[in-house]
Amino acid sequence: MRGFDQGSAAPDWMGQVEDANGVGSDAQSSSSFLSFFGLREQPFAATADPAYYYATSAHRESLFHLWNTVDERLGIAVVMGNYGTGKTTLLRKLLTGMRSKPEKYNTAVIASPIPSWTSFSLLEGITTQFGLQPETRSFVAYMDALYQYLLASRNRITTLIIDDAQNLNKRGQLELLRLVQNLETPQHKLLNLVLFAQLEWIPVLRAAPNFEQRISTTYTIGPIGLEDTRNLVQFRLRQAGGGDKGPIFDDSAIKVLHAYADGSPRVSVTLARNALLLAYQLRTRHVGQSIVLHTIQRTTMPDDVKQARVASAIAAAKEERKPAFDFTPETEPESLAAHAIERQSGNSLTSRANKLLLRAVRTHPDRLSYDQRT
After folding, report:
1. Ranges of H-type helices in 79-135
2. Highest-confidence range of 171-175, 314-318, 331-335, by mean pLDDT?
């Protein structure tokens, strides 16, 4: 890939793919895609499906603290993290658990508050999510309606969940949240608040100490490590029905994927999805480093920082790796071809696809070296 290693480029496979017995002609067919890989559904869908929630140790710990805050009615819990670290997936996991027990939990969600909302607009949004429609449109009437509703629901644990809480960046908005969270009985809070926000919300919270001091739990989710990236990919493939004949992301592919994503689950999932599509077009179930590099080149925006991380990961892997068999650069394509074909266990279509890959790499003017591709 240009910019990864002194101007070397990922092989331009796509034109040759289309000519390989019509391999690419049905690339947009979802059913053919799933059938080829032996999957029930797309393992790397863009939505935050709780069924595909992979719990790292950090996510498990965060979820434990959230449940404790909710069940003990401790008031306010905040989960923070950068974009794509899994906050929304964690939210949906929590929400799924609550909605599975409606006799115990009463829950409302504001998915993404509008930054320009006044404090009264926010109060309207809260009462609407709980199904309330006060007759008089005034702050006092809405607060009283909410209080009476919470009192009537006190035998259940009532929780308001707000995603993208960093949009609440005005003092009046946080003051409103403080007021509704202050509604209580002598025994416990009537309303829990669970807020998911980007790290950019930290200065806003610090500027509102009257609200910040009432936060019971703050948990920050960071990027995931290489092992968790590997487990995330494998877990999603298993959840989608991938068995012995399912797609395989080899270790070199995972390392490049993790380096590019910098530990972001969302970016990792997106890149894995696009890499799997390329593997389908090439009719191979094996996703290696070259496929991921080519996917980065063709489906992402240029980014020198991300490319530098990938280059470093490739260089580190090169230092760690010991050759599996001996050959000179001149004999490398033939040796590689024999090795790749031998691994395919008689699948003629897959063998042809691998031959195509090898020929594309061998003939490309800026071809990757063997060390980079393996």
Report:
1. 87-99, 119-129
2. 171-175
Strand pairing report for 192-197 and 286-287: unpaired
CA angle 51, 56, 60 (to 5 degrees): 80
Which residue type does 308 have? Answer: A
Give the helix, strand, coil percentages of the chain, each rounded to 5: 55, 10, 35
Residue that has been written with the tokens 């703050």 in this structure: 218
Higher pLDDT, 202 or 344: 202
Give pLDDT tens digits for 109-139.
999 999 999 999 999 999 999 999 999 999 9
pLDDT digits (tens, 9 = 90+) for 14-37: 444 444 444 444 445 677 888 899
pTM exceeding 0.90: no
Query: Nearest to residue 158, comparing CAs of 132, 121, 119, 139?
Result: 132
The amino acid at residue 94 is L
Cβ contact 246:35 at 8 Å: no
CATH superfamily of 57-221: P-loop containing nucleotide triphosphate hydrolases (3.40.50.300)
Two structure tokens written together for 35: 């059938």
The region that residue 327 occupies, defined by phi over 0 for left and psi between -120 and 50 for alpha, beta otherwise, is beta
β pairing state of 192-197 and 215-221 = unpaired
- Give the CA count within 13 Å in the CB-facing half-sphere of 223: 11
The domains of the chain are located at 14-47+225-373, 57-221
